[in-house]
Amino acid sequence: MTDNNVITFRKANSQDIDDIWKIIQQAIERRKKDGSTQWQNGYPNRQTIERDVEKDFAYVLLVDHQIAVYSALIINDEPAYSKIDGKWLSEGDFIVVHRVAVDNNFAGKGLVKILFEKIEEFAVSQKINSIKVDTNYDNMAMLKILESKGYTYCGEVMLADGMRKAFEKLII
């Protein structure tokens, strides 16, 4: 990445679905090559992405008008988060970050850190001061990013495909 790259964060639309699905497939393959069990059971699938777009959960980070990173942002709706083996930092409104995936052409360039900065700006714009996220125990890249961005480990949550480490960051 250079200072000349134009980075944009926006809600995804139906025209983005093919590009997003390609990025998700790349991420599934990367997780598999890393030896992870995360995303190896048919989730997320194309219908997941279509639902994200339909429900206005889908967001993309673009570099020079090309989709580089995908994420689903969901406000106040993650049933699995109601039962945590541990304790959340807050009990008010929150944004859940799910399905973060980076295009292979942009992997390793620090874009997920930029994505999380954009998500914080989005939270502020929505007057929400909590961002919650979970990840697999073996997703070292995401665990490092969450630590570097100031997320606090809160405990474990059970999702459909297994136990996840849960994190929260309060935006002040």
Which helices and strands appear, and what pairs or packs with what?
Layout: E1 7-11, H1 17-33, H2 46-54, E2 58-63, E3 66-75, E4 84-86, E5 95-102, H3 111-125, E6 130-135, H4 140-148, E7 152-159, E8 162-170
Parallel strand pairs: 5-6
Antiparallel strand pairs: 1-2, 2-3, 3-5, 4-7, 6-8, 7-8
Protein architecture, described:
It is a single chain. This protein is an alpha+beta fold. It has a single domain, classed as Gcn5-related N-acetyltransferase (GNAT) (Aminopeptidase), CATH 3.40.630. The protein has 4 helices and 8 strands, in the order βααββββαβαββ. It has an 8-stranded mixed sheet. It starts with 6 loop residues before the first strand and ends with a strand.
* Count of helical stretches: 4
Q: What's the story with the biggest beta sheet?
A: 8 strands, mixed
Radius of gyration from the alpha-carbon trace, in angstroms:
15 Å
Basic shape? globular
Provide the succession of SSEs: EHHEEEEHEHEE
First-to-last CA distance: 29 Å
The CATH superfamily label reads: Gcn5-related N-acetyltransferase (GNAT)
Strand line-up in the sheet with most strands: 1-2-3-5-6-8-7-4
Helix content: 25-40%
Query: DSSP strand (E) fraction?
Result: 25-35%
CATH topology: the name is Aminopeptidase
CATH class reads Alpha Beta
Overall residue-averaged pLDDT value: 94
CATH architectural label: 3-Layer(aba) Sandwich
- What structural class is derived from the secondary structure elements? alpha+beta
